[in-house]
Each structure stands twice: as C-alpha cells, then as structure tokens.
C-alpha cells in the first residue's frame, strides 16, 4: 500500500481523492449497496434518500467538508449523493451491523501511543486507502480508511490522533455523522477542540472515539447525540472494543454488542498489563504483537474469516494501526497484523511535512 498525497482547497483535495481512487470508490459503493440491502432492506436509491436527512446536520456543524465531498464525487465521476451516502454508511447500517475493532491508548516512558485493529467485511479489504491531506485551513493529517470517505483513523501534524470502535445501537439523532466527526477531530489543534466535537457538535449515532495527543493526554469518548461518556486512563491506558461502559453514556443509550466484545476487552487489558514492562523501551513491534493475539479465536483480537458465523457477523481484521503521537509517527499494516510482511510508516518531521517509508 502507498500513501496518496492530497493538497490545496477543499475542492481540490476532494477532486484529487476522487480521481486517484475512482475505481475503489465505485467498489465501495457496490459493497455498501449489498450491505444496506442485506442488513436494513434498502437499495442504493433508498439509502441515498436516507442520507439526505444528515445533510442539514453537516451544513450546521462542518459545512466546509461538503465542498470536499462534492469534489470527491466530481473526481470519481459520481453524484454528490453517492459520496454523502458512503460517508453516512454507519448511520444507515449500524442499527443492524456492528463492526469489530479492538483499540487502546498507552502512555509509557513519556510516549503516548494509540493503536487498533479495524475489523470489517472482507470485501472492503482492497478498498482501504491511506491519505495524506494538507489543506489551507487545517493541520496536515493522515487518515487510514475507506476510499471515498472523508476520514476514519489517523493523526495530524499537531500530534492529535483518533481511533474508532463501532457500536451497534438503534439510536440516531442530531449531530455529525461518525466519519464526518472523525475528520473534524483530525483537523483539531488540541485536545480541547477534539473533545468539543463530541460535546458541542455531538455525533448523531453512537460510536467510541479513542483520542490522544503528543503531550501525553488520552481519553475514550463514547459519543452519541447527547453528552458523551468519557473514559479516563487507568495506569496510563484506555481500552475499548464494541460495547458502551462509561456510566454517563450507557444510562442514555442502549447498545447491542456482539457477544465477544467484553471478552476481547478483558483480553486486551490482560495483555497490556502482562506483556509490556513498566520500564524499558516499547516500540511498534510490541504493540503489533498485542494486536496479533488469537486467544479465543475465531472471536479474537486478531480476527480471521469464519464461515461458520452468520453472514451479518462475518468479518476479519482488514488493517492495524500503531501511532506514536509523541513522535508524530503512524505505522500501518494492511491486512491482518499476524500475516503482514510489510508496513507503511508515515511521520511528520520538524518541518511539519510528512515522510513515508515502506518496510518489510
């Protein structure tokens, strides 16, 4: 995998994104067309109509991103409504389909880390892209996600990072769609601005955003249309899978987690406590080992395709990310971390430019 550099105005960034990944974006639309039909009984035309209800919310909370979505559509030769629908896919489908994903924040020896596996449908594996976005009105950022979407998991040049855990819930109210909110977080200059996306703008459907900063701060935000639940670090760590457990969130929102979510969370807590020394150096390799764990498989942290599961529950790890926010370095393994034989590393340097390397 390589990184796609995008720069300029919102429109220019969008058009370059659309041109560079037109084929993958079209494939993503096909994947979600099938998913919407399978999970919520909507064909693509109906899903486009559903996505329209989120347009006023984006116009209120983040109008500039609509210019970029329009640019993506033009660059890819698609309609704006197609790109809007793709970026609202969580709000349309996660009432019935929940992703996997295991994420953690770790502060050790003065270094702030964020890391996660992103687990989703196998047919999205080759539609994953790495984007380096340098706009005129926001910090430069790296986003790892699905082609045609404005953001997912990543960090910016200020050392702000974010991870994502899906939450299955029937709640959907007023606020920014999840992936639009993630992009606004990635354009934040500091932790206060990051938290404000969740507490002021709000997020229209539940998810967990794990945020961190280069100066050693981290928090879990269980977002939804109300005041988000917040999880503070314990012994320098915050961990999360796919259920709500902040008291202020789960008393407001009902979720329907997969049965393995709590098991994976307990395993993640144990691994961080038992495998990582309190003193001494920790690097990306040690954190990727944790993300490669198969305890309890097939319902493990590193997930492999399991044909014995119901179709709506079949998913596998599609990529893994480890971020050293202190050094503003992100390392990506595309595919399962236990199988990847190469990684992509992107680092913002002293000149605030990003340099990338591909290593075995």
Automatic annotation (TrEMBL):
Alphabetical list of InterPro entries matching this protein: C45_proenzyme-like, Peptidase_C45, Peptidase_C45_hydrolase
Residue ranges crossing the lipid bilayer per the database entry: none
**GO-annotated molecular function:** transferase activity
Query: Gene3D superfamilies this protein is in?
Result: 1.10.10.2120, Penicillin V Acylase, Chain A
- Tell me the ranges covered by the Peptidase C45 hydrolase domain, including all copies: 108-337
Database matches in Pfam families: AAT
What are the UniProt keywords, alphabetically?
A: Transferase
Q: Please give the name of this protein.
A: Acyl-coenzyme A:6-aminopenicillanic acid acyl-transferase
Q: Which organism is it from?
A: Halomonas lysinitropha
Taxon lineage: Bacteria, Pseudomonadati, Pseudomonadota, Gammaproteobacteria, Oceanospirillales
């Amino acid at each position: 995998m390589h990184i796609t550099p995008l720069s300029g105005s919102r429109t220019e960034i969008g058009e370059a994104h659309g041109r560079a990944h037109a084929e993958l974006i079209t494939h993503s639309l096909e994947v979600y067309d099938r998913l919407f039909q399978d999970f919520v009984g909507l064909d693509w035309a109906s899903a486009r109509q559903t996505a329209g209800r989120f347009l006023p919310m984006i116009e209120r909370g983040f109008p500039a991103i609509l210019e970029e979505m329009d640019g993506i559509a033009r660059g890819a030769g698609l309609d704006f409504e197609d790109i809007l629908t793709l970026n609202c896919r969580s709000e349309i489908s996660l009432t019935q389909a929940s992703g996997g994903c295991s994420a953690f924040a770790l502060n050790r020896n003065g270094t702030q880390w964020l890391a996660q596996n992103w687990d989703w449908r196998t047919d999205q594996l080759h539609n994953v892209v790495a984007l380096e976005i340098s706009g005129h009105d926001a910090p430069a950022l790296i986003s790892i996600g699905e082609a045609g979407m404005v953001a997912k998991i990543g960090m910016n040049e200020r050392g702000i990072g974010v991870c994502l855990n899906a939450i299955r819930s029937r709640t959907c109210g007023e606020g920014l769609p999840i992936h639009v909110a993630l992009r606004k977080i990635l354009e934040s200059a500091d932790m206060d601005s990051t938290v404000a996306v969740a507490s002021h703008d709000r997020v229209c459907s539940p998810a967990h955003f794990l945020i961190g900063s280069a100066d050693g701060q981290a928090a879990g935000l269980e977002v939804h249309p109300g005041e988000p639940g917040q999880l503070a670090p314990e012994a320098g760590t915050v961990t999360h899978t796919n259920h709500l457990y902040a008291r202020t969130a789960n008393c407001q929102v009902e979720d329907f987690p997969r049965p393995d979510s709590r098991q994976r969370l307990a395993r993640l807590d144990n691994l961080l406590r038992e495998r990582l020394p309190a003193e001494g150096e920790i690097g990306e390799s040690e954190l990727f080992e944790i993300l490669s764990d198969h305890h309890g498989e097939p319902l493990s942290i590193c997930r492999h395709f399991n044909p014995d599961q119901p179709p709506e529950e079949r998913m596998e790890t599609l990529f893994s990310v480890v971020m050293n926010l202190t050094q503003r370095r992100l390392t990506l393994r595309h595919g399962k971390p236990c199988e990847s034989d190469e990684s992509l590393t992107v680092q913002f340097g002293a000149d605030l430019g990003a340099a990338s390397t591909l290593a075995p």
